[in-house]
Amino acid sequence: MNDDWTRSRERSAFAALVAVLVAPVVAQGLWRPMVHVFGPAGDAASITGAAAAISLAVVLVRRLRWGRSDMLSFGSGVLVAVGATVGLALGLAGLVTLLSVAAAAGLLAERLFPTIPPSLDGLGRRYKALTSLYVLAALWSLVSVARVSVFMGDPTRVEHQVLPSEEFLETHSCLTAYVRADALSRARVDNLYDPRWWRGSQGFAPRPAGAADPYRPFNLDYYAYPPPFLLAMAPLAPLDGDFMAQRALWFGLNGLLLAAGLWILARWIEGPNAHRVLLLAPIFFASLPVLATLQVGNFQVAVVVLSVLAMVAFHERREATGGALLAFTILSKISPGVLGVVLLAKRRWRSAAWSAGFGALLLALSVVTLGVDPLASFFTYTLPRLGSGEVFAFMDDDPFSVITNMSPFGLPFKLQLIGLDVGDPWILARRLGRGYSVVLVALAVSAALRRSGDRRTQAVTWMSLLVLAALQSPFAPGYTLMALLWALTLLAVEVGTLRAGVALVLLWLGLVVVVPWSDLSLFAAHSALQSALAVAVPVWLILRPRRPDPNDKTPSTGS
Among 58, 29, 44, which Cα is nearest to 157's? Predict the structure, then answer.
């Protein structure tokens, strides 16, 4: 690694984009927790603006090469942090936050940016029109992340949320369920999944009059995950009782995990045009579906990233790392178990054994820390209700939940909204669900037995299986498509014509754009088409012909 990136206009600009994009995530992940410790001072908008300025200063000083010392660029960040703290009256909480941002930016400039591939050099001169479009998209990405970060620091700034005026996103936080379930588990209540503990959540009885609401202005969400997931709540434990600080820290942790996962995978992929995946990573990070998922705090982002990184680790023969990551994701959301099917079908016995071993360890740790009851309640009470869809009984009288459900299980309910007679939609939905599960397993085995292909092809296959497995849930909101949208950024490597590029963009838009039809039947029909597309595209990505990996010497059943 060296400082060659500072001599390249393209690499320096990309470094600045990454630094300024990540800065608000770091800042807002820390500021509220620091306020919890040191007391209130400053405001979320000032913190976000100062964080962006600090990261830009660090990269700029490094770019201008005012000395070769790493301390000089870090020192410039420190000066901006101190100046912003004094000038904007951000207090000790603000100072600690901004100094942390300066340290993070300095670490990026020292360790990460020198690894930006030289293949970016000269792209601006060779592709001027595309560069102009990319610059506009990058600027929009910076603004989008900055806006959402302000909302994460201050939930009263609803004008900065990912979709202003969308009341559901203003008041919905999946983290409420996680925090509530963690508190119930620590209180050792009888069956933390029982509806009596979840009054006020969608589909349940309203909260008793006068009862305390620690999550206001957010509505309580229902928890239906396996108990081992609650081990992930450990970083939030010191902030118990301060949900706004927990929400901000959760946003920061998930945002940084996503940024790291995008970077690692983009650098792991090899071959011609592989730099396109890296270039698209910041745009994907700031896309509306991803930011909406980070904003509501759903764990799906982390599940997808950790599952993909687990498979990368297995590919690199780091069995313990891969096993730990995959075991945790399976025990957190079940659906990544489809990758376990792939390992078994490929006869990757060591990988499967490490996953099983860590799974047993995490289950044991869950029992030690939470007790036996949560695990028993999940298997005897919640899991059957998940399989039958009973947990999501609100689909009977909530058209919005039906339309936002991308799962094949929800298709009969959409057909009913369209005006078609499907009889009892629950009966048909359960039959569809069982058939879909069988097809999914067969598809996973088929994918495993085919020739692996190059690294990018393997990653696309993992992501496609992850999205198909997530759609197995009776209720699968739009965030379950994240793995598929990530896979589409990898397809950019294959684009060789304007027509192909336009087709890829249209496919992306077809999956994410929701037209707010005034007619409910049209809205349901549009949603049904999106659901069909969400299944058909990953199936096509798995079954299409694969390009061989020139470095892969293993047979088709190998890694």
Answer: 44
The answer to whether residues 309 and 325 touch, using CB atoms and an 8 Å cutoff, is yes
User: How far apart, in Å, are the Cα atoms of 13 and each of 7, 116, 123, 199, 284?
Assistant: 11, 11, 12, 50, 17
**Two tokens at 8?**
């390249």
pTM of the model: 0.93
| CB neighbours of residue 37 within 10 Å | 12
SS3 per residue for 378-442: HHHHHHHHHHHCHHHHHHHCCHHHHHCCCCHHHHHHHHHHHCCCCCCHHHHHHHHHHHHHHHHHH
Q: Which residues contact 264 (CB under 8 A, 6 or more apart)?
A: 309, 312
* Residues composing the chain: 559
Tokens 């998922």, residue?
293
d(CA 300, CA 482): 8
User: Phi/psi at 261 (nearest 5 deg)?
Assistant: -65, -40
* Residue 311 host element (H or E): helix 300-315
Q: What's the whole-number mean pLDDT along residues 473-501?
A: 93
339, two tokens: 């990758």
What is the residue extent of each domain of the chain?
A: 4-160, 169-235
Given this model, what pLDDT does residue 213 score? 85
CA-based nearest residue to 312, from 243, 247, 261:
261
Residues 176-211: pLDDT tens digits? Answer: 999 999 999 999 999 999 999 999 887 788 888 777
